[in-house]
UniProtKB/TrEMBL annotation, chain A:
Domain of life: Bacteria
Segments forming domain CHAT: 570-789
Stated name of the protein: CHAT domain-containing protein
UniProtKB/TrEMBL annotation, chain B:
Protein name listed in UniProt: Carboxypeptidase regulatory-like domain-containing protein
The organism of origin for this protein: Nocardioides anomalus
Domain of life: Bacteria
Length: 805, 162
């Protein structure tokens, strides 16, 4: 007859062979024959695993508990049982209890590296769920080492993926994406579900990075894969992640998705998960309808209490703060304050929770100075985090987290009588994406190769792969960690010289301009936001059509319509400032909604040097030293009839300008030229890509030269002239920050970029920019050179070039 | 990439689309029927309408330095009146910008094809600049009717898809 030990051994072998049913029969016979406590406990440990695998968690928990009560267990058995029980506890959502059991397991498993590694991994998962990302990272790092040394590369990769996730929770997006990418290389091949886990978690990082579209696609894919594999909990988790990340951009959608996830958890009897989904639904409902019913508010408080009891303090804090905000907005200040105090918002809390707390604080503040203090501290917190990544793409995207705060700051500032306050908040809103000091990226050979392959016109599937890789490589780049402070009004006035700075501030309801000169400040109310929107709505089509070569009668009418619109825009944006500005050259810091305005064509600004700056702070930094205007390089791209004539005529203004035209104007040659000249001019077809602005580009003889190519340059000219369509256009991602080819050049270190926000007529570009070079070559500032060449809109196609800097 | 003529490239594009997305059976007949219906409307409704003709449809803005933006231009004409339409994406919706040449005040009515008949979607009064904007349109078959303020004969475009 087989002994209990023999049967146990065969049972374990059956488990390892994946024959769960056979294992159960063997282990139950072993249990009957077990003569001593230690053997019984060891068999029960294995049986508990089998029972849990078949879905009966309660029976499995009972087995673990009865086994743990036995005397004489070996350290290995005891550690296994504690780990096993902790896992079951985790499945039902009681994370704090699981951590305590895993502490005990880890204390006895020192001699068993594989079991120890797994216990660390499980404890890391529990820490993650509890929101302690630092403790989780430490555990996962242990697991990676222990399991890799034990020859379990696949399990080690799982831990590395989790390490990435923990880094993400700690705010290290670049580190997170790096670890997840390394783990995915090992894991994705193993199964569809594993690949889905990788994708779903990565999606959460993408969402936090503001890459909502990409994240949503990845989560949809993962949820479908889980659905096909009948994994209700996993599917619910993917939906919950989606719901949570929709809170910023689509609160109503967030509530719908969270409700679906909650139902799924309910059917699977996962009460703690269901509460987390309920909490997100409540937040969505509160954000979508500020005048929430008291029923929703009460449900929020109730869910928060239950989440606190589960040890899920950040989930609890988020829903408490949402209720508090709603109460405060509704006038129940005391109720709001009580909730704010109850919410866990101190330092290790995730950024989103800290920013939410700042917002509630700002609403509750009795004095404006206190409200500003909260908004300022929140934005500083955001920028400190933002400064950890080097990619312009990510820096702009994460701005979404700070938009609500910045909008509140701007609205408060417009109501404030002090011009210093209005100026400060204009700068802060303008700088949401540009406060971080750029780092020059080391050239990445993989990215350079991918960009070259993209130029060669790959098949669509390959093109998608390459674009994704170029983008993701940039995301992993570390940032400078340095944040610029906004310049203060007196310091700006001292540096303005004879120029006037105009800060346009656009809120949800009104438009205000602040004119700053060395002599003083003037605030001008410019009217309603609706009036501005009406003027701007057809501006881009007007500019595009006015640039087209049309039969004379059509062209005249179209250009007449553009001129009429520019008159109306100038009446709104320029005329009211005339007295304050006088005949000074101007520096403009336009709000995001003004990104497409061709300032140089506006009556009142025509013929006047105009520089459009990202912020007064960035303009001052770019103007600190005289521009280098020594060596010029000019490039003519293919299929532009007047391009070669333009570059040769423009080059004639310089004593020894380099010209690349025809087959010589390749991407590599242009990159090399850009690195050695002070002034770079590219006449080519251009294209702004709204959905992925850093893939906006200029067409060269061997294919497009992208914003990402600019990012790879070893050196950058001071002045860049883009004699092309649209590449002065920018996409506005969240409200105030701009991204596109012009932003890419400025981010890379260029100090002035002359470009058009709309289509440009071939002849008009030729005529205007040849004359600009004649002035530049004699040392004239680009804005002044442009002022001398761009005239008001008449019968000819306009030259809507703007000097950015 | 080997040097190819425009004709060769266009032939390649045509072959590609005929392979991957062939013209559905009966489409030509349906278009002809729709055109006949559109033309017959003027008799059915008893209105004296001038049907404009599509003169040009272009993806690129001629004479500019763009490489084909996400917008296209339609040009209709009849009896010395031109209508330029620029159709572009407006988030998930579509947007039409229009120019009536020579500029004159007109009422522009947007009509949408609803399987059985044409429904008026909106009417806007266009001032003397002849410039109008229609935002937040959903995809589908549309046509425009232009009624000059001076009481002269209205114009109607053929149906076009946005």
């Amino acid at each position: 007859m087989l002994s209990a030990q023999d049967l146990h051994a065969r049972g374990v072998a059956a488990i390892n062979g994946g024959r769960v049913r056979a294992a159960r029969a063997l282990l139950e016979r072993a249990l009957e024959r077990a003569a001593d406590e230690a053997t019984t406990g060891a068999v029960e440990a294995s049986l508990a695993y089998v029972v849990a695998e078949t879905g009966d968690r309660e029976a499995a928990e009972r087995l673990c508990r009865s086994a743990l009560a036995r005397d004489g267990l070996t350290a290995e058995t005891r550690g296994s049982l504690l780990s096993q029980h902790a896992l079951l506890v985790m499945l039902s959502g009681r994370m704090a209890e699981a951590v305590r059991e895993l502490d005990a397991a880890i204390a006895v498993l020192g001699d068993f590296p594989v079991l120890l590694g797994r216990a660390h991994g499980n404890r890391g998962t529990a820490h993650l769920e509890l929101g302690d990302a630092a403790a989780a990272s430490a555990d996962f790092a242990q697991t990676v080492v222990l399991l890799r040394e034990a020859g379990l590369p696949h399990e080690a990769a799982m831990a590395e993926h989790n390490l990435g996730y923990a880094r993400f929770l700690a705010g290290d997006l670049a580190g997170a994406l790096g670890a997840m990418a390394a783990a995915r290389d090992v894991l994705a091949a193993t199964s569809v579900v594993t690949a889905a886990v990788c994708d779903a978690d990565r999606a959460e990082v993408l969402m936090a990075a503001g890459l909502t579209e990409e994240g949503r696609d990845a989560l949809d894919r993962a949820a479908r894969a889980y659905g096909a594999a009948r994994l209700a909990r996993r599917r619910g988790e993917a939906e919950l992640t989606l719901a949570r990340s929709l809170l910023l951009s689509d609160a109503r959608g967030a509530a719908v998705v969270a409700r679906r996830a909650a139902r799924r958890f309910e059917r699977a009897e996962l009460a703690s998960w269901q509460r987390r989904a309920d909490a997100v639904r409540v937040q969505g409902e509160l954000a979508a309808a500020p005048t929430a019913t008291s029923a929703v508010l009460e449900e929020g408080v109730r869910v928060a209490e239950a989440l606190s009891a589960d040890g899920l303090r950040w989930d609890a804090a988020a829903v408490r703060l949402a209720v508090a905000r709603s109460r405060a907005e509704g006038g129940d200040r005391d109720g709001a304050r009580r909730l704010l105090v109850r919410a866990d918002t101190a330092a290790p809390a995730p950024l989103s929770v800290r920013l939410q707390a700042r917002e509630v604080g700002a609403v509750l503040a009795r004095r404006p100075a206190d409200a500003f203090g909260h908004v300022r501290a929140g934005l500083d917190d955001l920028h400190a985090w933002q400064s950890s990544f080097g990619s312009l793409d990510l820096q702009t995207n994460v701005v979404g987290h700070g938009v609500r705060l910045a909008v509140r700051g701007l609205a408060l500032a417009v109501r404030s009588p002090a011009d210093t306050v209005l100026f400060e908040w204009s700068e802060r809103a303008r700088m949401l994406a540009t406060r971080v000091q750029p780092v020059r990226a080391p050239q990445d050979p993989q990215t350079a190769a991918d960009l070259a392959e993209l130029r060669s016109g790959p098949a669509p599937e390959r093109e998608a792969v390459l674009r994704r890789r170029v983008r993701e490589q940039a995301w992993q780049r570390r940032g400078s960690g340095e944040v610029a402070d906004p310049v203060e009004l007196p310091a700006l006035q001292a540096s303005l010289g004879g120029a006037a700075l105009v800060a346009y501030v656009v809120t949800a309801t009104s438009v205000v301009a602040l004119v700053v000169t060395a002599d003083g400040t003037t605030r001008c109310e410019l009217g309603s936001r609706a009036a501005l929107d009406a003027v701007l709505s057809g501006l881009l089509p007007d500019l595009d059509m006015a640039a087209a070569a049309l039969p004379a009668a059509l062209a005249g009418s179209v250009r007449g319509a553009l001129a009429a619109r520019l008159d109306r825009a100038a009446a709104l944006l320029v005329a009211p400032l005339a007295d304050a500005v006088g005949d000074r050259p101007v520096v403009l810091t336009p709000s995001g909604v003004l990104a497409g305005v061709p300032w140089t064509l506006l009556p009142g600004l025509v013929g006047r040097p105009v520089t459009v700056a990202q912020s007064a702070t960035s303009w001052l930094a770019r103007s600190a030293e005289p521009l280098r205007l020594g060596a010029a390089g000019l490039v003519a791209g293919p299929r532009v009839p007047r391009a070669e004539a333009e570059v040769h005529a423009a080059a004639a203004a310089w004593s020894d300008a380099e010209v690349l035209a025809g087959d010589a104007a390749t991407a590599d040659a242009v990159s090399a030229l850009a690195a050695r000249v002070d002034v770079l001019h590219v006449a080519a077809h251009g294209r702004h890509t709204a959905e992925n602005p850093l893939f906006s580009g200029l067409e060269l003889v061997d294919g497009p030269w992208f914003g990402y190519d600019v990012d790879q340059l070893p050196g950058v000219p001071d002045v860049v002239l883009l004699s092309a369509c649209e590449v002065g256009r920018s996409s506005v991602r969240w409200g105030e920050e701009l991204i596109g080819l012009t932003a890419a050049w400025l981010h890379a270190g260029a100090r002035r970029v002359v470009a058009s926000p709309a289509a440009v007529n071939d002849d008009a570009a030729h005529d205007a920019l040849v004359r600009v070079h004649a002035a530049l070559a004699t040392g004239t500032d680009p804005a002044l050179a442009l002022a001398g060449t761009v005239g008001a809109v008449g019968a000819d196609a306009p030259a809507p070039f703007v000097c950015f800097g | 990439m080997a040097e190819r003529t425009d004709d060769e490239l266009l032939a390649g594009v045509r072959a590609f689309w005929e392979g991957t997305d062939p013209v559905p059976d009966g489409l030509v007949a349906r278009v002809q029927a729709a055109a006949a219906l559109a033309a017959s409307d003027r008799f059915d409704v008893g209105l004296d309408l001038e049907l404009m003709l599509l003169v040009e449809r272009t993806e690129e803005l001629a004479g500019t330095r763009g490489s084909g933006a996400a917008a296209y231009t339609l040009r209709f004409a009849r009896d010395g009146v031109d209508l330029l339409l620029r159709i572009s994406a407006d988030g998930t919706a579509a947007r039409i910008d229009g120019w009536v040449v020579p500029p004159s005040p007109v009422a522009v009515t947007v009509q949408r094809d609803t399987d059985t008949t044409w429904h008026d979607v909106a009417t806007i009064e266009v001032d003397a600049t002849g410039r109008f904007e229609l935002a937040a349109l959903t995809a589908g078959m549309l046509r425009l009717r232009l009624e000059p303020n001076d009481g002269s004969t209205p114009f109607q475009t053929p149906a076009f898809e946005i």
